[in-house]
């Protein structure tokens, strides 16, 4: 709980905003619990509200989910799933692999964490998200549309995670620089597919650097 508290508390206002959006979209409050418990995909869940209210075809929903969450393919390259023991535990850990969980479990201080600690961290973060979204949905009718700032919680949270990642890699300046160049190139060349293109360019850059210099990164 201590490991997940900093990020988990950042998820609370975002979950509240999601729950409020559920009720303001005309859906029953329990949709918030259903989405956050069974889908647990963050930004895709916000998009799913519009898809559900518009009665979008399942093929459209599936394609949208794939495009939004394709970045998780890259997370799997360095996520410490091998420390999690047992098939049910591995299955849940894979399901609960969010951006925030990845950021916390691949940092310097998480290198010694056993699988149980990783799994409990993911579970607590899941509870933060599902619980706050349910609370937001139940209280949605009491929160006016004029309330602003809740939607900034996600931006603030990812900014903090990015700063922590850079701080952990002080001695490896080329890697953050390569990430920034990949994002800028993707923005210019593939503006409609910025995130998957940036991840692909970043991975290609790391592989090229490794084969060209034989250098292994100091931190995974």
From TrEMBL:
InterPro entries associated with the record: Brnchd-chn_aa_trnsp_permease
Protein's recorded name: Branched-chain amino acid ABC transporter permease
GO biological process, one term: L-valine transmembrane transport
Membrane topology per record: Multi-pass membrane protein
Pfam families xref list: AzlC (PF03591)
Alphabetized UniProt keyword annotations: Cell membrane, Membrane, Transmembrane, Transmembrane helix, Transport
GO CC, alphabetical: plasma membrane
Protein family: Belongs to the AzlC family.
Residue stretches spanning the membrane: 7-32, 38-68, 118-143, 196-212
Keyword Transferase tagged: no
Keyword Transmembrane: yes
Annotated organism of origin: Streptomyces noursei (Streptomyces albulus)
Location(s), subcellular: Cell membrane
